[in-house]
Structures are given as structure tokens and as C-alpha cells.
Design goal:
- Helix 3 packs antiparallel against helix 10.
- Strand 2, helix 3 and strand 3 form a beta-alpha-beta unit.
- A 6-stranded parallel beta sheet has the order 3-2-1-4-5-6, with helices on both faces.
- 36% of the residues are buried.
- Helices cover 38% and strands 15% of the residues.
- The chain has a single domain, classed as HUPs (Rossmann fold).
- With 216 residues, the chain is an alpha/beta fold.
């Protein structure tokens, strides 16, 4: 079983955000979401969790886990508020958030976990494995961009139950304006365009050194 005390940087943290994703590659939008969650929810730390096999991208070609992990480690090396977990990479197979959270809570019962997502992910939650149980297991932090119209949200639109919708609606915070996607980063690299100001410099250096994403 994964030893959370070994991988989290903060000594005996009480409030830890979990930010999962493919991170193919990690970009500045991911880091901004982490910082907004840290500051607006008073978290001690945010732990990034790269998935092994994303359930919603079964046919997608993604960079090997060790390379995605290396880019994350390079990007957060100087920020003690951020850490990275190998829990899903080491487990392998399809990564389901409910299984990851259940394992982390069993490993570290003294830590209060929060699950951090971007507001766009709200529209995918209905398809997540055991989303009803996941919403009961920990508190969500939903980071929305400025101008995000919460009036347009409803249980019907999210395809969730009313109780689930109300839990998520209370979890929304308004973060910074950041419109970057990993897809855009990969496409720009394949087209020979710069990704400066889209990814951390260390990530850009790693991508160039290893020739990642040159073909799509």
C-alpha cells in the first residue's frame, strides 16, 4: 500500500487537496488551479496524482507514466506546497478516483482530503465510477474561471441527483482566468510552435530534450 507520509512534503498535514489528471503534459493552468485551491480553501498542500490509464481516454495515446511524472516533479521542485503521488501509476490499469481516495483515506486516517477539479469537469462527473460514494467520502473543491455562469448549472444539466448537485454547487470557488489545455500544448509542439508561457520552463525543457509530442 502506498505510504502517504513518504510522499507528502508537509509534516503531518491536516488538509490535503488531491488533484488528479493525465498531466500530458502538466501546464500552468494545472498549477494555477492548485494554487487557487490552496489559498481559497486554506489547504496545507495539494498532491498531484498522475493517472495510469484514464477511464475516459482509453484509446488516446499518452506519454509514458514515468515521463509525465518527471515533468511534474521538475515543475513543482521548488514549491513545498505541492507534491506528487505515484499511487495510480504504481497500481496500474484504469485509474478510478474512488479507488484512489479509498486507499489514501485508509493509509492516512488523520488527514482531511479534498478533491480538486476544474469547473469543466463538472459535466463529466455523472460518468465517474461511484460518484455518489465519492461525494460522501470527501469534500470537493471546484475551481471555476472568472465569468463562469453558475446560473446555468442544474442537476438535470449535470445529469446528477439534486443532493449531489447541491453539494457540488456549494463547492465552487472562482479562481484565476487560465485557458490552457494539454491538447493545445501537444498540438502546438507538433506544429513547431512555442509553448512558452503555457508550461513551466522546466517542463518545456524536458519536452524538448526528450522529443515529446512532435507528432500527433
Amino acid at each position: 500500500m502506498w505510504n502517504i507520509a513518504r510522499e507528502l512534503n508537509t509534516i503531518d498535514p491536516r488538509r490535503v487537496g488531491l488533484l488528479g489528471g493525465t498531466f500530458d503534459p502538466l501546464h500552468l493552468g494545472h498549477l494555477q488551479i492548485a494554487q487557487d485551491a490552496l489559498e481559497m480553501r486554506g489547504l496545507d498542500e495539494v498532491c498531484l496524482i498522475p493517472c495510469a490509464g484514464p477511464p475516459h481516454k482509453q484509446t488516446a495515446r499518452i506519454a509514458p507514466g514515468e515521463q509525465r511524472l518527471a515533468m511534474i516533479e521538475a515543475a513543482i521542485a521548488d514549491d513545498p506546497r505541492l507534491s506528487v503521488s505515484l499511487v495510480e501509476l504504481e497500481r496500474g490499469g484504469t485509474s478510478y478516483t474512488v479507488d484512489t481516495v479509498r486507499g489514501l483515506q485508509a493509509d492516512a486516517p488523520g488527514i482531511e482530503f479534498f478533491f480538486v477539479i476544474g469547473a469543466d469537469t463538472l459535466f463529466e462527473l455523472y460518468s465517474w465510477k461511484d460518484i455518489d460514494k465519492l461525494l460522501e467520502m470527501l469534500t470537493f473543491v471546484v475551481v471555476a474561471r472568472p465569468g463562469f455562469d453558475t446560473r446555468g448549472l442544474s442537476a438535470e444539466r449535470l445529469r446528477l441527483g439534486q443532493d449531489q448537485f447541491e453539494i457540488l454547487a456549494r463547492s465552487i470557488i472562482v479562481g484565476h482566468e487560465t485557458d490552457i489545455s494539454s491538447t493545445e500544448v501537444r498540438m502546438r509542439i507538433a506544429e513547431g510552435l512555442s509553448v512558452r508561457y503555457l508550461v513551466p520552463d522546466r517542463v518545456a525543457d524536458y519536452i524538448a530534450e526528450h522529443g515529446l509530442y512532435r507528432s500527433m
